[in-house]
């Protein structure tokens, strides 16, 4: 599949010195609830794919929604291209959304695409919202369809007459048609079969390279992030417990929870299969009151784990929030 950039002949904008997306100390609480995100720090650079992995309910969707101003941020700061988005309200928030510089691809394309609109209109909609002149829209729509490998002959179909993979491409075309700087893709392949999954992941890979996009791919499935993410952040109960280069996280996880995910992923486990029994086994006896999100499930928890572990650097761009990150692995072989 080719990803064309007919209209994007200009080189992608030079990558800014800092990250395109920067999240610091992000807290989100829904009304009367416990914080769903409790102090998240994350960065994504232009041209990079950041994978965010976590089990159901860990706060992945909330994280993406917070970036686009759809979740109640109670503390922290989110900047995109150096501009603070957490302070945007009312008209300035609507104006920022309309530009389409940050795009959020919803989890379920069947539910997020209006069933009565044709592909042409669905993809043109964000352009109309962004104020792109009508006469430019048709060409931009066709270019976006080409970019996601969707045959132009499908432009007059409605979502109900498309396959799951085609619908996901329509959602992707809608997301890139405004030439965003940042794309948040929420479970973009979870509803697809293996072949379509690979196509969509390759598309994301091509698009971020050719358009210089920062892409955040949210997934509960480590296998689908493995081939595409440059870096991976592991979310557990609203906290980033580990982040780092994908290869490092996947081959030598520093947090026991990441290790459990890696050892459980069918196509990933290479060396840690024997760890699984211990990692899945009964928790140690964590302190009665522990601020570590994982202590209640952790086979290595002890008195040290009463306090919440601060994310500690373990090399460039690598951190883990675990008191025992340096030593738990040694205990596996005992
Ligand atoms: N609008 C809301 N109001 C109240 N609670 C919410 C709301 N949206 C999400 N939550 C709660 O926040 C927590 C995190 O939900 P979120 O959807 O962010 O998790 P997730 O990791 O994306 O899960 P999944 O993989 O199942 O989509 C859950 O406990 C959920 O019930």
Give me the secondary-structure topology:
Layout: E1 21-29, E2 35-44, E3 49-53, H1 60-67, E4 73-80, E5 83-84, H2 90-98, E6 102-105, H3 109-112, H4 119-129, H5 134-147, H6 164-176, E7 182-186, H7 194-211, E8 214-219, H8 222-226, E9 231-236, E10 239-245, H9 246-251, H10 256-264, H11 275-280, E11 312-313, E12 319-320, H12 328-332
Parallel strand pairs: 3-8, 3-9, 6-7, 7-8
Antiparallel strand pairs: 1-2, 1-4, 4-5, 9-10, 10-12, 11-12
Bound molecules: adenosine-5'-triphosphate (ATP).
Please describe the structure with a list of short key phrases separated by commas or semicolons.
nucleotide-binding, Rossmann fold, 4-stranded antiparallel β-sheet, 8-stranded mixed β-sheet, ABC_transp_ATP-bind, binds adenosine-5'-triphosphate, Oligopep_ABC_C, transport, alpha/beta, 20% strand, 334 residues, ABC_transporter-like_ATP-bd
Count of all domains = 2
Structural class: alpha/beta
CATH superfamily of the largest domain, please?
A: P-loop containing nucleotide triphosphate hydrolases
Largest sheet: 8 strands, mixed
How many helical stretches?
12
Backbone shape: globular
Domain ABC transporter: 21-262
Protein name: ABC transporter ATP-binding protein
GO molecular function, one term: ATP binding
Family: Belongs to the ABC transporter superfamily.
């Amino acid at each position: 599949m080719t990803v064309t950039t007919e209209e994007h002949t200009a080189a992608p904008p030079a990558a800014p010195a800092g990250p395109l997306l920067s999240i610091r100390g992000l807290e989100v609480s829904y009304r009367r609830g416990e914080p769903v995100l409790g102090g998240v720090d994350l960065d994504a650079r232009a041209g990079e794919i950041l994978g965010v992995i976590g089990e159901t309910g860990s706060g992945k969707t909330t994280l993406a929604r917070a970036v686009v101003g759809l979740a109640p941020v109670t503390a922290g700061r989110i900047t995109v291209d150096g501009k603070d988005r957490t302070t945007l309200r009312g008209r300035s928030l609507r104006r920022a959304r309309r530009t389409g510089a940050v795009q959020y691809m919803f989890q379920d394309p069947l539910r997020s695409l209006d069933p009565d609109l044709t592909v042409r209109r669905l993809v043109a909609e964000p352009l109309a919202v962004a104020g792109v002149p009508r006469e430019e829209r048709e060409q931009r729509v066709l270019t976006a369809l080409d970019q996601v490998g969707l045959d132009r002959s499908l432009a007059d179909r409605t979502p109900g007459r498309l396959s799951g993979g085609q619908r996901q491409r329509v959602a992707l075309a809608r997301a890139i048609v405004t030439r965003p700087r940042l794309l948040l893709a929420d479970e973009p392949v979870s509803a697809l079969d293996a072949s379509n999954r690979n196509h969509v992941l390759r598309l994301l890979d091509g698009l971020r390279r050719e358009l210089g996009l920062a892409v955040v791919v949210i997934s509960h499935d480590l296998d689908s992030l493995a081939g595409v993410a440059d870096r991976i952040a592991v979310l557990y109960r609203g906290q980033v417990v580990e982040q780092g280069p994908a290869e490092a996280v996947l081959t030598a996880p520093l947090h026991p929870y990441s290790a459990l995910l890696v050892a459980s992923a069918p196509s990933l486990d290479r060396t840690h299969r024997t760890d699984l029994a211990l990692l899945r086994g009964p928790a140690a006896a964590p302190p009665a009151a522990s601020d570590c999100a994982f202590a209640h499930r952790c086979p290595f928890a002890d008195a040290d784990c009463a306090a919440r572990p601060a994310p500690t650097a373990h090399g460039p761009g690598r951190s883990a929030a675990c008191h025992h990150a340096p030593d738990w692995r040694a205990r596996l072989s005992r």
